[in-house]
Amino acid sequence: MKDGWNNLFEQVKAKEILTRIIESKRIPHAFIFYGQEGVGKFFTAIQFAKLINSNYDYHSNETIWKRISALQEPYIKLILPLPRGKGETGDDSATEKLSNEVIELIREEIQKKSLNPYYKINIENANLIKISSIRDIRKFVNINIDEMEYRFIIISDAHLMNEQAQNALLKNLEEPPEGIIFILLTSDKNKLLPTIQSRCWQIQFGPLSELAIKEILESYFSIKREIVEKVIPFVEGSPLNAIDLIQNDFENGLQRTVSFLRYSLAKRYNSAYRELIAFKENNEDYSIKILIMLIKIWLNDVIKNKYTINNEYYFNDYRETFIKFNAKFQKISISNIYQTLESLDNYVNRNLNLNVLYLNLIFEVASLSIRI
User: Residue 86 sits in a domain of what CATH number?
Assistant: First the structure.
């Protein structure tokens, strides 16, 4: 067990808090683990579940730990966003109207997650945690497991619960079942109801160091070091950002980001739009999130160059772009654009019409060149 706990990458503060909680023997019935995607919230939840169910019988521990790691019910319950089945209503169970192919895909994705705690489950059209998934908690709670003192309900991407689902969860938190601990994992805890937040022990997870990300990418994803070295400056503390960049043709993405910026700033709207379409081609919607992230990084280089903060730039191979920008638009303040880019980033998750999003992105960047 100690090896598993110690194998968590960084997150020292979170581990210290959880260790003190276990030692106090006063265990809260609900937690919110919040922070960037891919920084170890799920891994920590699993290891915490193992540690809190440890005793002096190693062989008994080993059996329980294996079942927790395998995400086996009724030892542990994982709730995650799921697609909607054909003709599904609120009275149906979470998977009742899903096809056999989709159900098999869900099983495969959960198995991948059990083998690799840094793997991001990928199920098409799974953008909502259903109220039926929350209602299923009752069945899990009603099963007794004598060999475990505490069982865990882990809600992945908890911010994807709609208000209905959150209110259903709130009833469980208001009258917590005996021996059940809830852990809500989220990258955006502000989307959770204040009443839910107030009933949970909140633990923040910070971004990982470049060294930790390199080790995760090499150990858990078998990515070659030379590829890791290229993307590491752009990952903003998350190995999942690195995976997304690698899977979406990172170097081509840099070139297209610069081209998009040039066309937008020059108000060549049709050309900028074509660059967006090319960026999107053969990728999922998440590629636009990557583009928004790269634009924010380019803007950060603009600020560093403008105020001569240092000479280390992320877009070092394209430094002439932000040097020329600062020379041409010396009086422009670009601080407000960050908030707009964050809003556009959130709209990607809400299935906003992509053409509307593209146009907003183009006009927002173009507006930089006319701000005085």
Answer: 3.40.50.300
Same domain, 171 and 263: no
Cα–Cα distance for residue pair 343/325, rounded to 1 Å: 24
Instruction: Tell whether 164 and 287 lie within a shared domain.
Output: no
**Assigned token pair, 292:** 């928004």
The answer to whether the beta carbons of residues 113 and 123 sit under 8 Å apart is no
* Model pLDDT, residue 56: 54
Among the three residues 206, 222, 257, which one is the final residue of a domain in this structure?
206
Structural domain count, the chain: 2
Select the more confidently predicted residue: 130 or 364: 130
Decide the pairing of beta strands 151-155 and 76-79.
parallel
Q: Does residue 50 share a domain with residue 139?
A: yes
Cα–Cα distances in Å, from 220 out to 120, 213, 237, 242, 294? Answer: 12, 10, 16, 13, 25
3: number of CA atoms within 13 Å, CB side?
Answer: 2
Q: Calculate helix-pair angle for 239-247, 250-265, nearest 10 degrees.
A: 80
Residue 1 has pLDDT above 50, yes or no: no
What is this structure's pTM?
0.84
Question: 209 is written with which tokens?
Answer: 């160091």
- C-alpha 358/C-alpha 276 separation (Å) is 7
Q: Rounded to the nearest 10 degrees, how much is the dihedral formed by the CA atoms of 272, 276, 278, 284?
A: 180
pLDDT of residue 156: 97
